[in-house]
Amino acid sequence: MLRIPSMAAAQTVPVAGDVSANVVEHVRLARLAAEARARVVVFPELSLTGYEMGSAAALAFSLGDARLEPLRDVARSSGVTLIVGAPMRLSGALHNAALIVEPTGAVGVYTKQHLGTFPPSARVDGELPPSESTVFTPGTSNPEVIVDGHSGAVAICADANRAEHAVRAAERGARIYFASSFVIPSEFEEATTNLRSRAQKHRMVVVFANYGGSSGGLASAGRSGVWAEDGTLLGCLPAAGTGVVVASESDEGWRVETRLESRSTRAHEGTMMDAAVVFRRGSGEDAAGVAAVLGAARGAMTYLPRLHTPHEDRAFFWAQLEQRESLVATKDGVLVGFAIFGDGWLYHLYVDRGQQNRGIGSRLLADVQALAGGGLQLWTFQQNAGARRFYERHGFRAVEETDGSGNEERVPDVRYRWESSRVREPERSLD
Predict the structure, then answer these.
(1) Where does residue 360 rank: exposed (0-12), middle (13-18), buried (19+ CB within 10 A)?
(2) d(CA 298, CA 431)
(3) 0.85 exceeded by the pTM?
(4) 178: which strand partners?
(5) Fold of the domain spanning 7-265
(6) CA of 89: how far to CAs of 133, 185, 194, 200, in Å?
(7) Taking CA atoms, which of 29, 121, 162, 346 is between 20 and 30 Å from 272?
(8) What is the pLDDT of residue 269?
(9) Greatest CA span in the chain, whole angstroms?
(10) Which CATH architecture has domain 284-418?
(11) Where are the domains of the chain?
């Protein structure tokens, strides 16, 4: 069977009503995805205008619209198919549409079938926009997205919440489900549970694109991501900011890269994230870089005894990286941060000392939290004040302190927990 082509979800923060600025951002993100060899890039719902119901009619696109030319150019030059969101006027009717820009320059149009409305409970996330049915007409245009011999289906937000929409896509032979969305924080869990269910039930890869900032008066949940055919979350972006997450299938399994666009992506601490930093899954091949980052970090902790040689550290981390889940951050091919986790525990998270306070640690932690789901626990040393402030800033709370007799360094430690969850205790105390 042919491998699924490399796919990307692009997360944008649209400028309200400024199509020109948003097109420029789309081109940047498309190029970032193409650098990671993506063959398809899906953007959020109404990504070219923002979720602006009041100006949708005035900003509407038409077939052959000249404003799409930069997107056609990048699709042709990079060999990628772009799925972008915009209001579209067809035969006199205004539709909420996804424009499918092919490498040939041709443009197909999917029109949203199930128009959405935000319930009163959404007020917790901002001001309620008008119901889509007061602005748009439901559509029926539903072209296939054919890439490298594989069939894909498009869904716009509320479409993906209808089980029958995915059923019809699967019956048509779709192996990829592109969900162009605007999902707010209070609805994120339900929406992503539905997407995971679509992947599992129909054996489709699901690519979900969401805003990384507010639009139309409402906050967005971000966390654009990709699910494998068995419902496994392969990777996702943070809750805020712009970037791309790219999933590629190989003989060894799935490989995921996330790339952040430097002009508009800010890390959780409010510092600028470097676009050259690439986040991906780790493997045993990263053991030397991981051991070097850890060795430098621990060398600065003068209260810790030196118990292992660099060779022993490399051997230990090779086993950890092969046996547990891990994420690494690289810059210019050099490993600058890593996280090792599993079974509800964060075992290690370190960032190169020269790359700290740039959002890398926050990004690694956000990805681990997203992948862990129900909750996380960790141990750190009581004297590690910087780590304690970092974890507390990200929602962890101290739940236990010990005299250190349970860790090999025999240094007093503290256990932190993020959200309450029932997970097993680790085999030994880890930092």
Answers:
(1) buried
(2) 10
(3) no
(4) 154, 207
(5) Nitrilase/N-carbamoyl-D-aminoacid amidohydrolase (3.60.110)
(6) 15, 30, 30, 35
(7) 346
(8) 35
(9) 75
(10) 3-Layer(aba) Sandwich (3.40)
(11) 7-265, 284-418
SS (H, E, C) the chain: CCCCCCEEEEECCCCCCCHHHHHHHHHHHHHHHHHCCCCEEECCCCCCCCCCHHHHHHHCECCCCHHHHHHHHHHHHHCCEEEEEEEEEECCEEEEEEEEECCCCCEEEEECCCCCCCCHHHHHHECCCCCHHHCCCCCCCCCCEEECCEEEEEEEHHHHHCHHHHHHHHHCCCCEEEEECCCCHHHHHHHHHHHHHHHHHHCCEEEEECCCCCECCECCCCCCEEECCCCCEEEECCCCCCEEEEEEEECCEEEEEEEECCCCCECCCCCECCCCEEEEECCHHHHHHHHHHHHHHHHCCCCCCCCCCHHHHHHHHHHHHHHCEEEEEEECCEEEEEEEEECCEEEEEEECHHHCCCCHHHHHHHHHHHHHCCCEEEEEECCCHHHHHHHHHCCCEEEEEECCCCCCCCCCEEEEEECCCCCCCCCCCCC
**How confident is residue 276, by pLDDT bands cut at 50, 70 and 90?**
low
Give percent of the chain above pLDDT 70: 92
Q: Which pLDDT score is estimated for 281?
A: 83
pLDDT digits (tens, 9 = 90+) for 395-426: 899 999 999 999 999 999 999 998 733 333 33
The predicted-structure confidence for 238-264, as pLDDT tens digits, reads as follows: 888 899 999 998 877 888 888 865 433
Q: Percent of the chain, pLDDT > 90?
A: 67
